[in-house]
Design brief:
The chain is built from 17 helices and no strands. It is mostly helical. InterPro entries: Poly_Biosynth_Transport, Polysacc_synth.
Length: 431
């Protein structure tokens, strides 16, 4: 499809309730299938590697999560915004964003590997590099392609890409587990990288073929994307801060505590993430609509974006309440599924069961601010909370170990929810 064939601005995002429901259903299929495959992969890898091995791998992947927001300078979010507001520029912009994402991912891999050598010396360097490049290049390319599909009102395409990507990972884990050597850290790292890169590149190729050629040429488009570095930086800071308070504790628990303790904590946190799949499906479908609702900017844009957040709140908050109860009730099943070595994860999961309710609160406020062009204030609060999370972990982990990491996580998510909504209502009242 040539640039001229890109949908008109009014057709890129279906703002109707039925359109949001269709997109949410498609994204739920993708995120649900992803959760199913990722959950099965997680159970298999955690059982095979044990708490220490899984904790070490979890620490490396936490380093990837911390580096990911800065790897592409917010390219995916800039592109989604462009797809909603200037769809005729999408073909050239997508090629530029894919190039920046891949190149930035490789640079971020090298930097994150240096950190991992200090924090997780038990994992060989080739395995570290493989795990990092899988997430910082492969997963990042998938996120870019899926984001564009959703912005173009093709959520089913995004869902199919998610299913194929995580299905490949699960198939690789099963194949490794069936070999005589079993699933080892090195073997899993290699398979994880191969499947992630294949899936990410395939997703980009599919979208590129759909969009066709267009734009000003790759070099000019890359320069144009990088010229938006201020907006991209604000997206990166916000996402980086979010990654800090979500994943820094895993690195710190490995360094200040033990790999086994981090293994138990990572298991509990991963189960919470799996319970948040329906929430993320709705938010992913609604994300381009926040940009459309807040296009006017200022108070009017913020009021419209908050209206969108309120319209999806009954569904998202209701699900998160159910998820919290289910996590609390099912915590005792963890040792049955993963082995008795994971008994410490039971207590951690009972407390972390509160996270879905805290996260939905700050996600809704944060996306409303971003849609209304107020990413800077969102990023500032997220960065402040991330710094607070690091300081709390420095104090609590040496004293209380796993329990300290859990406490810091709950405090920081709660503070962020209160702070972002205080900002939103304060700005609306001043108008």
């Amino acid at each position: 499809m040539a640039a001229a064939d890109v949908q008109s601005p009014g057709a890129v995002v279906d703002g109707s309730t039925s359109g949001l429901r269709r997109s949410s259903a498609s994204m739920l299929l993708g995120h649900g299938g992803r959760a199913a495959f990722a959950g099965l992969t997680f159970l298999l890898v955690a059982r095979e590697l044990g708490p220490e091995g899984f904790g070490a791998v979890g620490a490396v992947m936490a380093a990837a999560a911390l580096a990911l927001p800065f790897a592409s300078l917010g390219a995916v979010h800039l592109l989604v915004r462009s797809a909603v507001r200037s769809p005729e520029r999408l073909p050239g912009g997508f090629a530029a964003a894919a190039s920046v994402t891949a190149g930035g991912g490789l640079v971020a891999t090298a930097l994150a590997a240096a950190v991992c050598l200090l924090v997780v010396p038990s994992v060989p360097l080739p395995a570290v590099l493989a795990l990092l490049v899988a997430d910082l290049v492969g997963s990042a390319l998938l996120e870019l392609a899926a984001g564009v599909q959703v912005a173009r009102h093709r959520a089913m395409g995004a869902a199919q890409a998610q299913l194929a990507f995580h299905g490949l990972r699960f198939a690789a884990a099963v194949a490794l587990a069936l070999t005589p050597a079993g699933l080892t850290v090195g073997g899993w790292a290699a398979a994880y990288a191969a499947t992630s890169l294949a899936g990410g590149v395939a997703a980009v190729v599919v979208v590129r073929r759909q969009l066709g050629s267009g734009g000003l040429g790759l070099a000019a488009e890359v320069r144009g994307l990088l010229a938006q570095w201020r907006d991209g930086f604000h997206f990166s800071v916000g996402l980086g801060a979010q990654a800090l308070y979500n994943d820094l504790d895993k690195l710190m628990l490995t360094r200040l505590g033990s790999e086994a303790a981090n293994g138990a904590y990572t298991v509990a946190y991963r189960l919470v993430d799996m319970a948040l799949v329906p929430l993320r499906a709705v938010l992913a479908a609604a994300y381009p609509r926040f940009f459309a609702a807040g296009a006017a900017g200022g108070t009017a844009g913020l009021r419209a974006a908050v209206g969108l957040a309120r319209s999806i709140a009954p569904t998202t908050v209701g699900w998160c309440a159910v998820a919290s109860v289910a996590l609390l009730a099912g915590a005792d099943l963890v040792p049955l599924l993963l082995g008795e070595d994971y008994e410490p994860a039971v207590g951690a999961l009972r407390w972390l069961a509160l996270l879905p309710l805290l996260k939905v609160a700050h996600y809704l406020a944060a996306d409303a601010l971003t849609g209304a062009g107020q990413q800077r204030v969102r990023s500032a609060w997220q960065l402040g909370v991330a710094v607070g999370n690091g300081l709390l972990n420095l104090w609590l982990i040496p004293a209380f170990g796993l329990a300290g990491a859990v406490a810091a996580s709950l405090v920081c998510d709660g503070v962020l929810a209160l702070a972002l909504w205080a900002v939103v209502w304060g700005r609306l009242r001043r108008a």
